[in-house]
Design a protein that fits this description.
With 296 residues, this protein is an alpha/beta fold. The chain is built from eleven helices and ten strands. It has an eight-stranded parallel β-sheet with strand order 3-4-5-6-7-8-9-10. A two-stranded antiparallel ribbon has the order 1-2. It is globular and about 55 Å long. It binds NADP nicotinamide-adenine-dinucleotide phosphate.
């Protein structure tokens, strides 16, 4: 990890696509039910910050809300959405039709990043690769990615795409200090080797890494120890537990781009503020140790 304490984080590449984004994006799966005024303010907050990745998916039903925000004014944000495959809905034609639907809801002609939401058992990843290649070649997607792919499937689809000259931009997986499987199951290693972004969803463990340390009555011992460690470091930086948790993911590897969900502008602002400083090596190591039981 970098030890240059106090240095801001640089932009991060989406693999070899030539697209660069802020190291932190934002998840929108709760935007549909959230207060619209707060969501619009959240959208403005991140848009002003730079090319922040806004993550949606057809299954979240938040594409329309993101589309309403986009229609409300220009933004520097980078928009990502996902194709939902299910048995009988896997062909390139079905993927392209789904992409057309997403573009219509978002009010876009081209999406910055289009993912396959997860692999399906018994479906060769080549089928998805063909659809994703068409998405790029048609000009409807600038870059393409996968989500919830294990290392083997990720390597196979990256290989298929490479033969068509299309880089795999990202693999989006569940990754936080309370779930570090990506470090042991080969996904992080594959991202580094293939130069693919690891987009971390649930980076705040669905809110479990946001609670202050005196509100831990019901939490498991391991989680309590981790939260105590995060709270101590947060105090030293006049920061919050969530900012420390996000900063650790950012320091873990330069391929990691966390996308914390936020429906409130002050949460989005606080998360982006985590980009203005870094953990020291000692702090990084202390957190690493306190969360080590979560490696598997
Ligand atoms: N690819 C997949 O299969 C997949 C699966 C699940 C999720 N995702 C993506 O990952 C994104 C993130 O997941 P998530 O939102 O469920 O979990 P998360 O990012 O781990 O946690 C979000 C929670 O933390 C709160 N929060 C955010 N910033 C905060 C801050 N600075 N201080 C205090 N609380 C804060 C949010 O509150 P407020 O809402 O009140 O702001 C929300 O309750 C989703 O939106 C979605 O885009 C992808």
């Amino acid at each position: 990890m970098p030890a240059d304490h106090e240095m801001p984080h640089d932009m991060r590449p989406l693999g070899r696509t030539g697209i660069h984004v802020l190291p932190l994006g934002i998840g929108t799966n709760k935007w549909r039910r959230a207060d619209r005024g707060a969501v619009l303010e959240t959208y403005r907050t991140i848009g002003e910050a730079g090319p922040c990745m806004i993550d949606t998916a057809e299954i979240y039903f938040s594409e329309r809300v993101v589309g309403d925000c986009l229609r409300a004014g220009p933004t520097r944000a980078v928009i990502a959405s996902k194709f939902l495959p299910f048995p009988g809905r896997t062909s390139p034609r079905r993927l392209m039709r789904a992409l057309d639907g997403s573009l219509a809801r978002l009010g876009l002609k081209t999406i910055d990043l289009y993912y396959v939401h997860y692999p399906l058992p018994f479906i060769d990843v080549g089928v998805f690769a063909e659809g994703l290649i068409e998405a790029v070649k048609s000009g409807k997607a600038r870059a393409i990615g996968v989500a919830n792919f294990n290392a083997d499937k990720m390597r196979r689809i990256a290989d298929h795409l490479a033969r068509a000259g299309v880089p795999l931009a990202a693999n989006q997986v569940n990754y936080s200090l309370l779930r570090r499987a990506a470090e042991t199951n080969g996904v992080l290693e594959a991202c580094r080797e293939l130069d693919v972004a690891l987009v971390a969803y649930f980076p705040l463990a669905s809110g479990r890494l946001t609670q202050p340390s005196d509100d831990m009555g019901t939490k498991a011992m391991g989680t309590k120890a981790l939260l105590t460690c995060l709270a101590d470091i947060a105090r030293a930086h006049d920061a919050s537990i969530s900012q420390v948790a996000l900063n650790w993911l950012l320091a873990r590897d330069s391929h990691v781009i966390p996308i914390p969900g936020a429906t409130k502008p002050h949460h989005a602002r606080a998360n982006l503020d985590a980009l203005s400083w870094r953990l020291s090596k000692t702090e990084y190591d202390a957190i690493d140790q306190a969360s080590a039981p979560r490696m598997a």
